[in-house]
Amino acid sequence: MNQNVIDNETQEKLDAFIKQEEGDSNNYKGLLAIFITLVAVGMSLFHLYAAYSIVPTHQLRVIHVALVLFLVFLSFPVAARFKNKLMFWDVLFAIGSVAIAYYILAGGDDLMDRNTAPNSTDVMVGIALILIILEGVRRTNGMVLVTVTVLFLLYAFFGNYLPAPWTHKGYDLDRLVGYMYMSLEGIYGTAVDVSATLIILFTIFGAFLQFTGAGKFFIDFSFAAMGGKSSGVGRTIVLSSFLMGGPSGSGVATTVTVGSVAAPMLKKVGYEKNAAGGLLAAGGLGAIISPPVLGAAAFLIADFLKISYLDVLLMATIPTILFYLGLFVMVEIDVRKYGMKNIHFPSVESAWQLTKKYWFHFFSLISIVVFMMMGFSPVMSVFWATVVSALSSMLRKDTAIIPWAWFKGKEPILSGLYQSNLVKALSSGSTGVLAIAATCAGAGLIVGTVTLTGLGLKFSSIVIQYAGGSLLLTAIFTALIVWIVGLAVPVTASYIICAVIAAPALINLGVPAFAAHMFIFYYAVLSEVSPPTALSPFAAAAICKGNPYKTTLQTWKYVAPAILVPFMFVLDKSGVSLLLMGSTSALEQADWSQIAWISFTAVIGIICLAGGLQGWFIEKTKVFERVIMVISGVALAYPSTEADLIGFIGFALVLVTQIFTHFKLHPRSSS
């Protein structure tokens, strides 16, 4: 069932895509590999300790950035030709990162108090830190994000020479450097706070699930539950992407893991190779918007808005259901469209047998939400969920995070523990967060510039002015801005930049802050399917032997129904029903009939769009039917009575013509 059928050349390509998302790190052997593993394990243990005990905020953030930069410089080469070679400058950068952290921590409150008037040593240390962070960002994320960050810093220096409305009073080097690292506003601001608490803990949790076999179980379970008939293959991909994506929060990793098993089946039942890749990538993309572990940007939403992470999960619930519903409808249409052969795929074990054996993996998945509902903070919830995952894995020999043999004394104490899945999970938890954590440190420079110069309010007033005060146009402009920024930088950085420069425009026009931030989050995620950052579609194309650009277009087709969902919750007050009113307290006073109605119109709208974009519904659609279905889908996405009426009439009209066509083509089925 779950044999990996990928040849070596394709595997190398896929590794390259994963490295592009997570950074292309060195692959050391010997003592150096052991040293880096032990530092990564130590970093994970420190953050787990900080979750359980109290480490002062400033200390935690400074130590987090120092550990991240230390590992980045030892793990990521300065250039491809130095891959797997540790150079003296890497060691200098790594030691420099720790030395700067020591300087900041030793300076204590005195250092923080003089942030508006730093002395010459402070300024030199600050400049060194900014340059080290930019180099760390370059090594993990490439030159584009560095260029964007430098442009923001140049704006802080030279913005006073720009014409209105872009101008500001101008800041000299001392003031800018002091603000950036001697306060909790710049580098050590919101983004690093979230990276040091939630993001790293959720990455450790995801690593624990991976190394206890939960990922493999979710794929096997999906195939057993949905497999069997050919139409089940598409559904299997949708379900396994959701189950895998929840804990992983990574689009590329989910696409590759599911695709390596499912690609041959998609080919066998009749999927065209680019469409097969498009479906895999779309399923993987859903990983970033699926509870309980959304992409890293979701933790930033909670911090920016000063709300509970449980509220963010609540807001993501209906849009996630709508996203996967859109994929399910597309998959059902595919069966008719491609005239799929009815092939039976035997399952090694039934879903029930698998559940009886590995039921605890489901509990690991939902335990975070259970702990949050019991009143634990998100940090404590993920801490205890990780503990639960580790302890429950010990119930079976084949999932045990520390081998049973080790406890029986059949393995050497130190080397047995070092080779255990516990050490692998702790090490992977820290190394897996390096690229995102470096992004967060770099993004701190951007956020610091925006707050210092007031760029966010200036930018929002310009957007509103161009849109003539129209909410619809402002939403379209904002979506385009997020999409353009997302073409160049990863989702996390894209969300951070747009949250501070574009969200104020929507909020100024009366959109609730939580809806504006979710709107930006969803478009930051959707920009992942656009070249040059279309890593998931490119990885899927490599698996399915398709054309990367045609696969990207097919991915767009599969996710298109979801593209309109964010507009539904910003264009009209009633649309926030799709976000379950934004918080548990507001939900208690909510009108459930309105939530049900808005959700129902969204469902029909997504079905309309799916049919219109696929060119197939019950039967192949004619041009006028496709046009009506797309118009109806768009109309149903706009929350107003008139638009709903147009949408339902259009849908009913096409439904009637399609049923008529079906009976005409298959007269026997009507008798």
Characteristics of this structure?
33 helices, mainly alpha, single chain, 671 residues
Describe the fold and architecture.
Helix content is 74%, strand content 0%. The chain is globular. It is built from 33 helices and no strands.
Which SSEs are present, and which pair or pack?
Elements (H helix, E strand, L loop, with lengths): L7 H15 L7 H23 L4 H19 L12 H26 L6 H22 L1 H16 L14 H9 L8 H22 L2 H13 L4 H18 L2 H19 L3 H13 L10 H10 L3 H29 L13 H23 L4 H16 L10 H4 L5 H6 L2 H11 L2 H20 L1 H12 L4 H18 L2 H11 L1 H6 L4 H14 L8 H10 L3 H16 L1 H4 L15 H5 L3 H23 L8 H15 L3 H25 L1 H4 L1
Helix pairs in contact: 1-26, 2-3, 2-8, 2-19, 3-4, 3-8, 3-20, 4-5, 5-6, 5-7, 5-20, 6-20, 8-13, 8-16, 8-19, 8-20, 9-10, 9-15, 10-11, 10-12, 10-14, 11-12, 11-26, 12-26, 12-27, 13-25, 14-27, 14-30, 15-16, 20-23, 22-23, 22-25, 23-25, 26-27, 27-30, 30-31, 30-32, 31-32
Kindly summarize this structure in a few lines.
By secondary structure, the chain is mainly alpha-helical.
Average pLDDT confidence is 86
Radius of gyration: 26 Å
Low-confidence stretches: none
Q: What quaternary form is this?
A: single chain
